[in-house]
Amino acid sequence: MVENGTQPKAGVYFVGAGPGDPELLTLKGQRLIQQADVIVYADSLVPSGILQFAAATATCIPTAALTLEEILPLMISAVEAGKVVVRLQSGDPSLYSAIHEQIQRLAAAGIEVEVVPGISAYQLAAARLKAELTLPELVQTIILTRASGRTRVPAAEELASLAAHQASLCLYLSANCVQRAQQQLLAHYPPDTLVAIGYRLGWPDEQLWLVPLSEMASVSQQQRLTRTTLYLISPALAAQHVTPFQGRSCLYSPEHHHLFRPD
Ligand SMILES: C[S@@+](CC[C@H](N)C(=O)[O-])C[C@H]1O[C@@H](n2cnc3c(N)ncnc32)[C@H](O)[C@@H]1O
């Protein structure tokens, strides 16, 4: 889809709405919402506050109760009528958003799409904690994953094997099987590894707990967390919240020379 200046051509724009706070939309996402004739949004995860940017004349269609077979004709008929359609997805559309199946079927109907990235839930969790998840010499990898539940995770990606890396691990869609997830993580992370539990981050009723891994399941159960919960398990959290980490990056070291700071 080619844009002419800031005027969108009719088509479907998949826009990452971020975790909830409307101020965490990208400028491009906000502009597209303003220009949309039809906004199809996942109301279970995208708060209505995001729709404040929509034109008064825009048609806003919640999709939590709809099937793919019901959602697609809505988008296709709107595009065929020359309307600008925005499909609002929570967080970033590259993660657990089911955009692939929508894009494939839109393509079969001859409709092009553009995807606008958004801020994912794990990024807001890290920001709330003022945490860097990649501390030099401590942890340099971030794993984004989910526990195996109704949607099966490939065997090679079972939590117990991912845990062996002791990376910063962000666990989506897993509140319903948190007990088993905790057990699998304990196979490799020490029990006192800090876990941030974020509930509805960026929503008015946001909550964030910082607990040892050994209490991840019990706190989740006490708080009755079953959905919209993100777990962030990382050695970096203790280094920033318990024992101050003294390491530093090469990037800003006086001994380290590079293209922009030759000797
Ligand atoms: C269907 S996935 C969508 C993920 C989304 N695309 C993203 O990048 O954040 C829904 C899961 O993402 C996480 N999630 C999404 N929004 C969240 C929020 N505001 N607070 C906490 N977790 C959230 C939860 O794990 C939830 O079960």
Automatic annotation (TrEMBL):
Name of the molecule in the record: Precorrin-4 C(11)-methyltransferase
Top-level taxon in the UniProt lineage: Bacteria
Entry keywords, A to Z: Cobalamin biosynthesis, Methyltransferase, S-adenosyl-L-methionine, Transferase
Species the sequence originates in: Parathermosynechococcus lividus PCC 6715
Signal peptide: none
InterPro entries in the cross-refs: 4pyrrol_Mease (IPR000878), 4pyrrol_Methylase_sf (IPR035996), 4pyrrole_Mease_sub1 (IPR014777), 4pyrrole_Mease_sub2 (IPR014776), Cbl_synth_CobM/CibF (IPR006362), Siro_Cobalamin_biosynth (IPR050161), Uropor_MeTrfase_CS (IPR003043)
Pathway the protein acts in: Cofactor biosynthesis; adenosylcobalamin biosynthesis
Pfam families: TP_methylase (PF00590)
CDD domains (UniProt xref): Precorrin-4_C11-MT (cd11641)
GO biological process: cobalamin biosynthetic process; methylation
Family (UniProt): Belongs to the precorrin methyltransferase family.
Ranges for domain Tetrapyrrole methylase: 12-216
GO molecular function, one term: precorrin-4 C11-methyltransferase activity
Organism placement in taxonomy: Bacteria, Bacillati, Cyanobacteriota, Cyanophyceae, Acaryochloridales
NCBIfam families cross-referenced by the UniProt entry: cobM_cbiF
Keyword set includes Transferase: yes
